[in-house]
Write a structure and sequence with these properties.
44% of the residues lie in helices and 16% in strands. With 324 residues, the protein is of the alpha/beta class.
Length: 324
C-alpha cells in the first residue's frame, strides 16, 4: 500500500511536470498550445486520445512528441487494411523445444501506444482495441494479460471522406476520452516550421521530462480532486441533454459522463485547483462528447456540426451556483 501524499504537494508536482512537458511539446508542435494542453489533460486523466484531421497537419507528430516527453515504453502500430487483430493483442505460439504454447505480446503492450491512421484498418481489427482500452488488459486463449501502467492509446484518423478509410465503430469511438483536430497552423507558425523542421526532425533533440512511474502517480492524484454534488449533477444534466436534443440522433453514453468528469478533474489540476468548477466541465464538453454523438437529419440539413449543437446545449443547461 502506497503512503498517502498531500494533495497540495501532488498538485505542485503536477504543475512542474505538466509545465515541462508543455514547453517540450510546443518546441516541436508550433502554435498549437490549446491542442497540447488538451493532450496533456487526457494523459493526466488516464484516458485515450483520438486525433482527427487531414493528412500533413501534424497528427502523428503530436502523438510521437507526447510519447517522447515520457521516459517509458512506446510502440507504434501502423494500421493498414491487412493488419490482423493478433498483430495488436499478441498470439500464442507453440514452442517446439518446450512443447508448450508461449504468448508473444502484440503492439498494444506498451505505456504509450501510437495507432497511426486507425481508420485504415477493418472494423474487425479496430475492435481488437476494445478490451485493452476499457479494461487495460488482453484476454487470449483463456488467459488474461495486464497492460502496463500508465497506459494511453493515441490514435490518428483521417476524415471519413478520405479515400481508403473505414468508419470507427461506435463502441470504439466511445472509448476515446477526447477527440481533437490539429487544424492548419497560422502563417507565422508555418514559417517557423520551415526553419525548425526543414533541416531535420525536432524530435531528434527532444529529451524526456518525466517517466511512466511519475505519470501513473499523477493520474492517481488527479482522481482525488474534489467534485461537488452540484458539479456531478451538472455533468449528468449535460450528458442527459444530448439524449433529448432534436438535433442529435444518438446522445452521449454513461461512459461519456464518467470520462467528462475525469477530464474535468485533470483540467482543474492543470489550472492549480484542488476542486472542479463548472468552467472545467464546459471547456471539455466538445472534445469529450463531440465524437460520441450522431447528428440528426434536421441538424445536417441545417448545416450544424457537433460543435454547434453541443455549444448550444451548454448555453441552455443551468449552471450550478453556490458554494462548492
Amino acid at each position: 500500500m502506497e503512503p498517502a501524499v498531500d494533495l497540495d504537494v501532488e498538485l505542485e508536482r503536477l504543475h512542474a511536470v505538466a509545465g515541462d512537458a508543455a514547453r517540450a511539446m510546443t518546441s516541436v508542435i508550433e502554435g498549437k498550445d490549446e491542442v497540447v494542453r488538451t493532450a496533456l489533460t487526457v494523459l493526466l486523466a488516464g484516458g485515450h486520445l483520438l486525433i482527427e484531421d487531414v493528412p500533413g497537419v501534424g497528427k502523428t507528430m503530436l502523438a510521437k512528441t507526447l510519447a517522447r516527453t515520457i521516459d517509458c515504453t512506446v510502440r507504434r502500430i501502423q494500421f493498414t487494411p491487412d493488419l490482423l487483430p493478433s498483430d495488436i493483442t499478441g498470439v500464442s505460439v507453440f514452442n517446439q523445444d518446450t512443447h508448450a504454447f508461449e504468448f508473444r505480446p502484440g503492439g498494444i503492450f506498451a505505456n504509450v501506444v501510437i495507432g497511426d491512421e486507425i481508420n485504415r484498418a477493418s472494423p474487425k481489427t479496430q475492435s481488437a482495441l476494445l478490451e485493452s482500452m476499457e479494461e487495460r488488459q488482453v484476454s487470449i486463449d483463456g488467459r488474461t494479460y495486464v497492460l502496463p501502467d500508465p497506459f494511453i492509446v493515441m490514435a490518428t484518423q483521417n476524415p471519413l471522406e478520405m479515400e481508403g478509410t473505414y468508419p470507427l465503430p461506435e463502441a470504439q469511438r466511445d472509448r476515446f476520452m477526447a477527440r481533437i483536430s490539429m487544424g492548419y497552423p497560422s502563417p507565422r507558425a508555418e514559417l517557423r516550421m520551415l526553419d525548425t523542421h526543414g533541416a531535420g526532425s525536432p524530435l531528434t533533440d527532444l529529451l524526456p521530462v518525466t517517466d511512466g512511474t511519475t505519470i501513473a502517480a499523477l493520474v492517481r492524484g488527479v482522481q482525488r480532486l474534489y467534485a461537488s454534488p452540484a458539479v456531478r449533477q451538472y455533468v449528468v444534466d449535460l450528458v442527459g441533454a444530448t439524449r433529448t436534443s432534436r438535433y442529435l440522433r444518438l446522445g452521449a453514453s454513461p461512459r461519456a459522463g464518467l470520462q467528462l468528469l475525469r477530464a474535468a478533474r485533470a483540467h482543474a489540476a492543470l489550472h492549480g485547483r484542488d476542486h472542479v468548477l463548472p468552467d472545467d466541465v464546459q471547456d471539455l464538453v466538445v472534445p469529450v462528447l463531440g465524437h460520441r454523438v450522431i447528428l440528426s437529419t434536421e441538424a445536417e440539413v441545417g448545416g450544424m456540426g457537433a460543435h454547434d449543437v453541443l455549444t448550444s446545449l451548454v448555453a441552455t443547461v443551468p449552471v450550478p451556483i453556490g458554494p462548492r
